Amino acid sequence: MEEILHPLFRWIHIIAGITWIGLLYFFNFINGHVAATMDADSKRKVVPELMPRALYWFRYGAAWTWLSGIVLMYIVFWGGGLSFGESAGTNLFDEGTMVSQTTHIMLLFTFAAVFLYDYLYKTGLASNVRIITIVSFLLVAAVIYLFKFVSGFSYRGFNIHLGAMFGTMMAFNVWFRIWPAQQKIITAIKDGQAPNGSDVALAGLRSKHNTYMSIPLIWTMMNQHTVIFAGGNFGITESTNWLVLVAMVAIGWHLAFQLYKKSAKVKGF
Fold it and tell me: Does the pTM of the predicted model rise above 0.90?
């Protein structure tokens, strides 16, 4: 059965992911700048027709990407080994690594971290972009360290579980922060009213967060299939390979920053 489910859900995962992330980049690098050029009457005509359609594919792309990802995580990483207390050479661990209580705690944290993230960005700390970015980066680095050195995840294991953590945060943002806020924004524009500023700020901020997380997320999806950075190349050892992923988070966030700058300079005719 796994021989059928694996390719089927990987195919679903990729198609849904393309739909989701493609629309995410459309909203952040294109649509926002176009909407800024519209007058109130144009927005009243365009937004109620465009945004519900785009957001439909956006949120269901997110849902199917996340759900198919969970199925793949079970098939590739969790099935069997975690139930019996020993990895037996699964992709989650190096061969013979014992599954401990800490392993299960970190697996739980992979999907519970979204609530810490959501709380953190509701605190006063979030008003200082520089400080909250540094704090977020240090927390991500700490999670990668715990995956490897406390729970004993393999190189592939800690790569894909960081991706699962980011993906869970992103899907949560889509369904519980961006979509509810956008419903209010679209309704207000359709009724000829100014949207609530807090709704606009929330939808924009969480959409931007998703853009920043998407680049290291895509890296983890690709990199967990390779071992070139796992140790033995470029001076990287088995004990320092986790720093590659930490560096890629920083590089990914900087790349997103540069893409935002570039998108503001692209003009229409």
Answer: yes
